[in-house]
Amino acid sequence: MNDESSNRNVDKELVASQSAMYEKAAAYTKIILSLGYGGFFIAWSGTKQYLSPRALVASALCETVSLFIFIIFEIWQVSVANSLSIRFSREVTKPGADVPAALNTHKAEVQQLYRPMFAAQPIIFWACAFTGLAGGGVLIYAFVARLCRMWA
Description:
Strand content: under 5%
CATH architecture: Orthogonal Bundle
Mean pLDDT: 86
Number of helices: 3
CATH class: Mainly Alpha
Radius of gyration: 23 Å
Helix content: over 70%
C-alpha cells in the first residue's frame, strides 16, 4: 500500500510539473508571438515607403496569415476552456450535485477536448513561425536591397 501511495504522489507531482511547464511555454509563446507581430507592424509601417509594392504586399500578407492562424488557435483554446468551465460549474452547483463524479466527468472531457489542441499546437506554432518569419524576412531583404541601391 505504501508503494502504491508513493506512486500516486509521484504521478500527481509529474502531472503538476508537466502542466506548469506547458502553461509557462504557452504563455512564453504568446508573449513572443505578440511582441513579434507588434514589432513587425511597427517596422513595416516605418519602412513601407521604401519598399516596392510587391514586397510591401508580400510581407504584410505573410504576417497577416501568421496572425490569423495565431488568433484562430487562441479563440479555439478559449472557447474550449470556457465551455468546459461553464459545464463543470453548472454540474457542481446543482442541488445535490455529486462533486466527485462531476470532477471525474470534467477530467475526462478535458482530456478528450484538449487532445486535438495538444496535437495541433506544434503545427500551429510552426505555421505561425514560418509565415511570420517569412514576412519579416521579405521586409528585411527588401529594405536592405533598397538601402544598397540608394548607396550604390
